[in-house]
Amino acid sequence: MTKKIGFIGIGNLGAHLAHSLLRAGFSLTVHDLNRAAAETLLAAGARWANTPQELAAGVDTVITCLPSPAAVTRVVAGENGILSGLRSGGVWIDMSTNDFHELQRLAALAAARGIACLESPVTGGVHRAAAGQITVIVAGEQAVFADHLPVFEAMGGRVFYMGGLGKASVIKVITNMLAFVHLVAAGEALMLAKRGGIDLTQAFEVIKASSGNSFVHETESQVILNGSYNIGFTMDLACKDLHFAHELGREFGVPLEVAGLVEQTFIRARSQYGGQAWSSQVVKLLEDALSTDLRAPGFPEILSAG
């Protein structure tokens, strides 16, 4: 595939996705507010663009992976944005966890300029992105998806096509909502085990082998038990995604009672530890309240720096 790819947003997740594109042999141009974040990509062969407009003018497809709807809107439609640089026939792919109404508005602006849009949020954790095995969820025009399937396969393991634009945003919010619910529940379970005198390493393994297991327990319980909490995902992002879920619940008429309680727990944790704290530190609220830590020896870091 000879398409030239532009990638904007070299954060905890975006850096791994961009590295996967380079490893697969794609021509890659990158941009971020912080040029230092792109140094390893530049050393590996990526090119740098000073603005989103400059980046878009030199590529066929632009991928954005940004932390908020406001950031996406600014990069796409703002001054020196993607839409002012990408030529007719180009493609914009948003890999952010975005508000699907705002995504559809921006897609309409793009379509008026002859630019196609796909949404492609990912799920499964930063450690899976580092290994090129993250799950990729795509929505938008099917022919454009088919044309870019090698791009998605380079970044992820399983790739799901969901249909019309907006559907990927909805299912991504749902998966994140479930992950945060599972995280709070895993913390409570581990604390119950600790207070019940059970060795936490044994507790981890028994839960993993039980009907109470979850992907979140298998991954995030480890960074709780090793004390790093480093899951590569911040409290700000967790609160943003839970807010999206709450809004979807209102829009679709679905009461999200458990998710609503979890959202308030995360808001309290963000107030306590800061927006840039790792999302798994929500469990620290319970540790601090009970003056009981959840450390266990032998659990390694699960995130790769590569």
Give a brief outline of the structure:
50% of the residues lie in helices and 13% in strands. The chain is an alpha/beta fold.
Structural features, described:
The chain is an alpha/beta fold and 306 residues long. It folds into two domains: 4-165, NAD(P)-binding Rossmann-like Domain (Rossmann fold); 170-290, Orthogonal Bundle (N-(1-d-carboxylethyl)-l-norvaline Dehydrogenase, domain 2). The chain is 50% helix and 13% strand. The chain is built from 14 helices and nine strands. It has helices at 14-23, 39-43, 52-57, 69-77, 100-112, 126-130, 142-147, 149-155, 167-195, 200-208, 215-225, 235-252, 257-273, 284-290; strands at residues 4-8, 27-31, 47-48, 61-64, 91-94, 116-119, 122-123, 134-140, 156-161. Strands 1, 2, 3, 4, 5, 6, 7, 8 and 9 form a nine-stranded mixed beta sheet that branches. Helix 9 packs across helix 11, helix 9 (167-195) packs across helix 12 (235-252) and helix 9 crosses helix 13 (257-273). The mean pLDDT is 94.
Q: Key terms for this structure?
A:
Rossmann fold, 2 domains, 13% strand, alpha/beta, 14 helices, N-(1-d-carboxylethyl)-l-norvaline Dehydrogenase, domain 2, 306 residues
Number of domains: 2
- List the secondary-structure elements in sequence, H or E: EHEHEHEHEHEEHEHHEHHHHHH
Radius of gyration: 20 Å
- Which fold does the CATH topology of the largest domain refer to? Rossmann fold
Number of strands: 9
CATH architecture verdict of the largest domain: 3-Layer(aba) Sandwich
